[in-house]
């Protein structure tokens, strides 16, 4: 219904092809005084054009008859949004949410760039620094006898497993939405 819709969508899609890069993003984060805060990790990745394109295509695939039936029943635009479109779109929202969470969870580079002190690193950045170089200064005298029996690969594997554990715990609860969200744009008969 919006006349300039296609041009408007392409305006945002082009930003996916030609991103600003790490240095301009760092400068903006620095100038907005977000360095060394949790917001430096959240705000730059909060608006994802790819997720918006997926949701746009999902909403284009919803039959217009659902909206027309609700309008005939006397529902307003907000009521249609909350009672029809939102429940129908839960699988795609959960899928995009899972993609976003896993993408940010695995992003170790952002924490190293935006956090000045290792105490504020997110888990993946901290694990990355541990895997790259084990800091034996943190080990106490009591732990030395235990560590002599462990190989370096065993320690790194345990660290990586602990880093993946939260996502492995969340995934089974989102799996039913994830499967629906992946197949939502497929051909239906």
UniProtKB/TrEMBL annotation:
What topology does it adopt in the membrane? Multi-pass membrane protein
* GO biological process terms, semicolon-separated: transmembrane transport
Could you tell me which Gene3D superfamilies the record lists for this protein? MetI-like
UniProt cross-references to CDD domains, sorted A to Z: TM_PBP2
Task: Identify the keywords attached in UniProt to this record, alphabetized.
Answer: Cell membrane, Membrane, Transmembrane, Transmembrane helix, Transport
The UniProt entry's sequence similarity note says: Belongs to the binding-protein-dependent transport system permease family.
Q: What is this protein called?
A: Putative ABC transporter permease
Cross-referenced Pfam families, in alphabetical order?
BPD_transp_1
Localization, UniProt: Cell membrane
Traced from the root, the source organism's taxonomic lineage reads:
Bacteria, Bacillati, Bacillota, Bacilli, Bacillales
Gene Ontology CC terms, in alphabetical order:
plasma membrane
User: What domain of life is recorded for the organism?
Assistant: Bacteria
What region holds the ABC transmembrane type-1 domain?
Answer: 1-171
Q: Which residues cross the membrane?
A: 9-29, 35-59, 80-105, 157-174
């Amino acid at each position: 219904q919006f006349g300039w819709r296609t041009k408007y969508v392409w305006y945002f899609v082009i930003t996916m092809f030609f991103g600003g890069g790490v240095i301009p993003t760092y400068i903006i984060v620095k100038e907005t005084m977000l360095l060394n805060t949790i917001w430096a990790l959240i705000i730059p990745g909060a608006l994802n054009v790819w997720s918006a394109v997926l949701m746009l295509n999902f909403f284009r695939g919803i039959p217009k008859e659902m909206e027309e039936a609700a309008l005939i029943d006397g529902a307003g635009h907000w009521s249609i949004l909350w009672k029809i479109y939102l429940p129908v779109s839960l699988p795609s929202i959960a899928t995009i949410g899972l993609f976003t969470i896993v993408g940010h969870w695995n992003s170790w580079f952002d924490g190293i760039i935006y956090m000045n002190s290792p105490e504020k690193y997110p888990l993946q950045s901290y694990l990355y620094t541990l895997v790259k170089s084990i800091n034996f200064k943190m080990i106490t005298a009591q732990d030395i006898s235990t560590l002599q029996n462990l190989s370096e690969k065993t320690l790194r594997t345990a660290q990586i497993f602990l880093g993946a554990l939260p996502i492995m715990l969340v995934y089974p609860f989102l799996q039913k939405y994830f499967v629906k969200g992946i197949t939502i744009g497929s051909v239906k008969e």
